[in-house]
Structure formats: structure tokens, C-alpha cells
Prior knowledge:
Helix content is 76%, strand content 0%. It is mainly α. The protein has a single domain (9-189), classed as RNA polymerase sigma factor, region 2, helix turn helix motif (Rna Polymerase Sigma Factor, Chain: A, Orthogonal Bundle), CATH 1.10.1740.10. α2 (22-45) runs antiparallel to α3 (48-65) and α7 packs across α9. It is elongated. The model has no long low-confidence stretch (mean pLDDT 84).
Amino acid sequence: MAEQPSITDEQILSLLDKEASYEQGFKALMSAYQERLYWHVRRMVDSHEDANDVIQNVFIKVFRNIKKFKGDSKLYTWLYRIATNESITFLKKRNKKATNSLDDELSTVAHQLTADTYFDPDAAQMHLKLAIAILPEKQKAVFTLRYYEEMPYIEMAKVLDTTVGALKASYHHALKKVEAYLKNVEHNSL
């Protein structure tokens, strides 16, 4: 998991609250969270270019809506919620346009990963990434937040606006699908 920001959320919000320091506050927010959010989005959308597009949309939404942040949750929870929703929206749009079969989709994801200069996979990582790629958007979000970000279910519930029980069930189903995919890969490679 990425390092914690050197500036606190309270300091960032204080800067954003004043017109004179708003720009400094937004720069501090981006500095503190851009990398963490990028990798969260990247794990969901697969390619560097797509992740950059989604992150750009995330920060546009944050810029437009930061004044509406009430502090009911942690700032990072609010940011992850926006990033997750933007990623899911992107995936839905991409899947709507795609008429490919599952094999074609896996082939495309595999090609994107191997062609991506920012991703240096070993075989196990590649198969895990492919297994995650075939998950439905919501399960992909839950799996990514839990497996990679190690986010507690209570925080995930705030990010995804659902119950802890639903998240545990979704993670369980996602995990079973990933395990089945990996067992199938292992079986076919013997």
C-alpha cells in the first residue's frame, strides 16, 4: 500500500476552504492522493492510458464537488468512492461498446498488459490480472479494494454505498471466480 500523505486531510480541507489558498489545497490533495487513486483505478481498468483518462475525470469531479464534501466520511473514502464510480462507469461504457466474446476480451486484456511499458508481469501476476478482468464491475471494485488496497469492509461500505454483508458476499463470490480461473489455468498448463 502507498505511503500516507505528509499533509493531513484536515490541512488540505482547511486550504480548500479559503479562496486565497484553494489552488494550493487542490495541489496538496492531488499530491497526496493522485498515485494511490491511479493504482486503484489502474487495477480496475487494466491499461495505463485508460487509467489516466479515468483519473483525469476523477479529479475534474473532485475539483467541481469538493465544496460539497461534508466530512461525513474520511476524505480518502470520498475520493475512492469517486474513483471507483468513475472506473465502473468507464468499464460499463467499454463493455457496452464491446461485442467480443470472453476469449476475445481476455486476449485483448493480455495484449494490453504485455504491450504496456508500465506493467512487467510474471506469469502468476498476468493470470491474476486476467482473472480479475473477467469479474463483473462491482465485484472487480470490491476485489480490488479488499485485495490490493486492504481496505476494511466498513470503509468499503462507505466507498461503494452498500452494506458490509453485501460486500463480504461480493468479495467471496469474486474470490471464488478468481480461484476457479487460476485453477483452470493451472490445470490446462499441466
